[in-house]
Fold these 4 entries.
Entry 1:
Amino acid sequence: MIATFDNTWNSVEWVIAEMIDEPRILEKAASELDFLVGKDRPVQESDLVHLTCIKACVKEALRSGGA
């Protein structure tokens, strides 16, 4: 159980690090998040349908193996 939790966080950290290396993609994802969700509330599961850029980043991370 702990290894699974650790691997998930490692994957999230890896995705964020890769996005930092690509400022254009990071800016696009941040803009999408600010526009669709806003800064005043946390992301909800119902928001995920509309976050196409962020979903693409996650799918690419999973496709390429991540951490």
Entry 2:
Amino acid sequence: MYLDDMKTIYWISTLILTIFLSWSAYGYFFSKTMIDGVKALGFPDFFRIQLAVLKITAVFILLIPQIPIQYKEWAYVGIGLFFITAIVAHAIHKDPLFINLINIVFFGILIISRICLLKLQG
């Protein structure tokens, strides 16, 4: 029973995370509001495109079970760095606290997904 619960938690947390990353990557390409928001934070335009491509890559790495755990670990690290960077950038920019709360919640979901993956591997 414990293993089935862990799998369920892993897939729910991973799906929530990858849906958010996919939505964010889409917005970086097609949403004027998000494109302008990245610029307002002081990041160059190439960084926005780079983040979108890396997020899409991370989504595939996390969702495809056959991809080796080492690649998934790097995807988790990259996503974690994204959230930390976003939290710092929004705090410095003095954006509403709600934006950082969202990033903190998704950072927590990232941690849950990773912990479950490690428990399922071990």
Entry 3:
Amino acid sequence: MSKDKKNSNFRDNLEARSEEAKTVRKIVSIIIIALLLILLIGGISGYLYVKSALEPVDPESNEEVKVTIPIGSSSSQIASILEKNGVIKDALVFRFYIKFNNESNFQAGEYTFTTGMKLDEIIDSLKNGKIMAEPVHSITIPEGKTVEELAEIYAKELSFTKEDFLNKVNNRNFIEQLMEAYPSILSDDILNPEIRTPLEGYLFASTYEFYEKEPSVETVIYEMMKKTDTVVSKYLDEISENNFSVHEAVTFASVIEKEASTAKQRKKIAGVFYNRIEQGMKLQTDPTVLYALGKHKERVLYEDLEIESPYNTYYVEGLPIGPIGSYAESSLAAALNPEDSDYLYFLHDGDGEIYYAENLEQHNKNKQEHMN
């Protein structure tokens, strides 16, 4: 083949490759432009959709929608309920909105919304329990009550029995469900086989309102645990700063509750208990003896003090193995912020007064003067 013909073929091949490269570049450019347009259109569409989903379903409407939020509902479940009832446009967008704004602690109950409500108005209603229905039951649980005692209170007011309640609070599977639901409050400490009732001290004393005619035991317990979580969570940092576990703090609060009736007394008695622990003394508090005995007595006898129980603070060092009843928030506050003093003893008279002493001699003198 001649030299000129070879050069001609080379040029033809070069031109063909050049045309092919141009075609590839054009195709790639078209694809990139198309993808960018798709992303742009998708982004704009997504923005407009989310913007629309954040607006009221029907801003001009005052149509009322009755919605039931069951006890124990998660945020995702609440969002689904609201979307299903036409109160919000999109459950997923609602969930992202409350997560972004760190909104939580929604209340169960019967609500009346309108389709013209903004998301913030809906959230405010759910957080503050602004419900339209009147409670069917309103039950007050006094401070200091044991699980067995509050089981009796509920059994008198609701459709289940005392045994139903006690069976549920001692059910291992149910307790583990609660531990998963409230991991910062309930620990493995409550599963200690020597603990009499796992939820003793964890069902907060308060007034509870129920909107169902026959709420279940589970409903009642979840409502009480929700209240406990609300109260105790405020003190988690202080509990940690005091080198307590939540279980120890709650146990301490329950003991203080049984020994005092006012916030001032509680702080003072908490200080006495701290002093005894620092001196290597046992707490020696009679309410723990009564809890160990499992019955109420007007007077604790010397023979009672000898009961070998992990709850008896005449027998064990430090705190009992677990709470001995419910408590007021001021008892928990006192356990974490006791009043400083040099007192090592205190004595109740028959009129509600408490007398303190720095040593055994003074304590015995108080007995002679105030126990006759």
Entry 4:
Amino acid sequence: MSTKTQTLDHEAVGAYLRGRLPGFDSDFEVVKFQTGQSNPTFMLKTTEGNYVLRRKPPGVLLKSAHAVDREFRVQKALADTDVPVAKMHLLCEDDDVIGSAFYVMDHVAGRNLTDPRMPDSDPQSRAAVVDEMSRVLASLHQVDIDAVGLADYGPPGNYFERQLARWTKQYRASETEVIPEMNELIQALEKAMPKEDGQRGLVHGDYRIDNMIFASDGPTCQAVLDWELSTIGHPYADLAGVIMQWQMPPGSEGRGLAGIDRAALGLPSDQAFIESYCKRRGLDGIDNFGFYLSFSFFRMGGILQGVLKRALDGNASNPERAVKLGGFVSLFARSGLEALNK
């Protein structure tokens, strides 16, 4: 296992940020976050306030993966929109500074809810948080990409066709064993590909409750995090991603709501959340949602396969957790086939 993903060159970071950001003319503390499998993330505690440094992992990486420059660009572009993001400070693309590209942003204080069951909340509070998730998601998909300078943030054409080809290629590049269900799902999605419907906007790519920071005393979202997979694409991918996550097993690994009495907890059904989102966007409904849900399961399976491959290669941010997550690939594939067949 490489220790480079677990540590940060304190001296090199300080030398680079000194004179560029307040707080680095004296000693500061570095603390690594254990969350975030893709790009290692660190808290920088200074006398002037706290920052977050997010870096590309060192080593041989899949092409187009770990794009911290894109993360920086999209969050900077969203600064004056209705989508809450952390304040971006600087991007360093010089690998010689710490061994890989990185960016620094404000640390956003608040609650990071890693379990969608929200065990420490009451039904009313849970309902308010999920409604805020719906509001922020609809706001994201209504961002004027031309006005914020993101019209070229993704290529034109059928988003799902493009994404299926991309993630199939990524999956093959990180494949460690033959998983028949994944092969079957890829073929099924190719056959079921819907026609382009004209919807094109900014998508987050991994929109879920644990990639958000909420106010410590209420449901207001303070920042949406982890924009590595963001691009210009079809908004239903993000919506289906939320539903996909909820259909996973509950607990620290699945982080889902499968088998949970949602009504008793104050949580909406899948359909109620979809209807809330559609109402905010002025949509009558969504046809063929099974395809979008199936695609979400496939893509997450591909992502987790990449996480497993990095763990085996010694480049994972959290190796032990990475291996556990890699065990979910076949489960995601089976779930994708089930969603498509429904």
